[in-house]
Amino acid sequence: MRIDRMITEYWPLFGLTLHTPRLELRVPGLDDLALLAAAAAAGVHAPDRQPFAVPWTDGTPLERARSTLQWQWSMWGRWSPQDWSLHFVTLADGQVIGTQALDAKDFAGLREVGSGSWLGREHQGKGYGTEMRAAVLDLAFTGLGAEWATSEAFADNVASYGVSRRLGYTDDGTARHLVRGEAVVGRRLRLDRAGWAAARTVDVRIEGLEPCLPLFGL
């Protein structure tokens, strides 16, 4: 048996892939992670901004690359059906351009997911953020039977709010975070199944989900 087929038998998430009109989202192997780390090293946002509650992008290019690898590996190691965080690499025209995550705790009972993402700076402003979040929302609602999806971004993150609004999210309160020593307000958003169905405009094709369902607690 080939090694790639063997690892998918043991860990079927490596066979899970999402397709949209322009993008492919897949669980990364080591080659994909190397390219994702390079995208992080090249830059994710302007130095005078910090859109993440954990400021992992404040380091040097090498530190950002290593942080990306360590984070991805840690998500593999801590996975359980009761507490999971699924991280895809996003590819456009075969090039790794960023990452899109879907996560949940006690999903089998709560049927609620959260999401997070980033794109390399050169790939921003092209609508990829909307398309890749639409892909994981389709996985959540169509593939896994979710009832709710949540998101949060800092109040000045116009791009993230634009994605959320286009996909049907509504306001769900605020939260406060300490970033770079200063208090920052985050705005929470929530999407229910009806709102997702009403705003759904991106065609998504899901491959390889069925053998993964026990890993999601389903």
Walk me through what this model shows.
This protein has seven helices and nine strands; from the N terminus they run αββααββαβαβαββαβ. The chain has 218 residues and is of the alpha+beta class. It has one domain (3-211): Aminopeptidase. Strands 7-8-6-5-4-3-2-1-9 form a nine-stranded mixed sheet, with helices on both faces. α2 packs antiparallel against α3 (61-77). The longest helix is centred in the first third of the chain and has 17 residues, at 61-77.
Give a short overview:
By secondary structure, this protein is α+β, with helices and mostly antiparallel strands.
What would the keywords be for this entry?
single chain, 218 residues, alpha+beta, Aminopeptidase, nine-stranded mixed sheet, 7 helices, 31% strand, globular, Acyl_CoA_acyltransferase
